From TrEMBL:
It comes from Streptomyces antnestii. InterPro entries: Anti-sigma_ant (IPR003658), MlaB-like_STAS (IPR058548), STAS_dom (IPR002645), STAS_dom_sf (IPR036513). CDD domains: STAS_anti-anti-sigma_factors. PANTHER family: ANTI-SIGMA FACTOR ANTAGONIST TM_1081-RELATED (PTHR33495:SF2), ANTI-SIGMA FACTOR ANTAGONIST TM_1081-RELATED-RELATED (PTHR33495). The lineage of its organism: Bacteria, Bacillati, Actinomycetota, Actinomycetes, Kitasatosporales. One of its GO terms (molecular function) is anti-sigma factor antagonist activity. This is Anti-sigma factor antagonist. Belongs to the anti-sigma-factor antagonist family. Residues 10-107 form the STAS domain. It comes from the Bacteria.
Length: 107
C-alpha cells in the first residue's frame, strides 16, 4: 500500500488490508488533525481492501466528524462500490459523485 498527499487530499494505492491498516490509520489521522475542510481520499489506485481496511476508512470518517471535517471518497473502484452498497455504508460516507447503484453489475 502507498499513500501520498497532504492534509487536504490523499491518494491510496495497492492493498488496504490488515498488514497496512496501522500505517494507513496513522497517515489519515495525521492528515485529519492537521487540516481544515474536506479531506479528499482518492481510491482510484486501490486494488483491494478487506474488513480491516474498511474499518480504517470508517474510523477516519468518524474522526473527521470529531475534527469538524468531512472525509470525501473519490474514485471508488466498482468492486469496492458494491461492498459499500451491500453494507449500506454508501449512505453514511461522502462519495464524490455518489454511487449509481443501478449501474453496478450484479454479483
Amino acid at each position: 500500500m502507498h499513500i501520498r498527499g497532504d492534509h487536504a487530499g490523499l491518494a491510496v494505492g495497492g492493498r488496504l488490508d490488515v498488514r497496512s491498516a496501522a500505517d494507513a490509520r496513522t497517515v489519515l489521522h495525521t492528515a485529519l488533525d492537521d487540516g481544515v475542510g474536506d479531506l479528499l481520499l482518492d481510491l482510484s489506485e486501490l486494488d483491494s481492501w478487506d474488513a480491516t481496511g474498511l474499518g480504517v476508512i470508517m474510523g477516519a470518517h468518524r474522526r473527521a466528524g470529531r475534527c469538524g471535517r468531512r472525509l470525501v471518497l473519490r474514485g471508488v473502484p466498482p468492486q469496492m462500490q458494491r461492498l459499500l452498497v451491500a453494507t449500506r455504508l454508501h449512505r453514511i460516507l461522502a462519495i464524490e459523485g455518489g454511487i449509481g447503484v443501478e449501474s453496478l453489475p450484479r454479483v
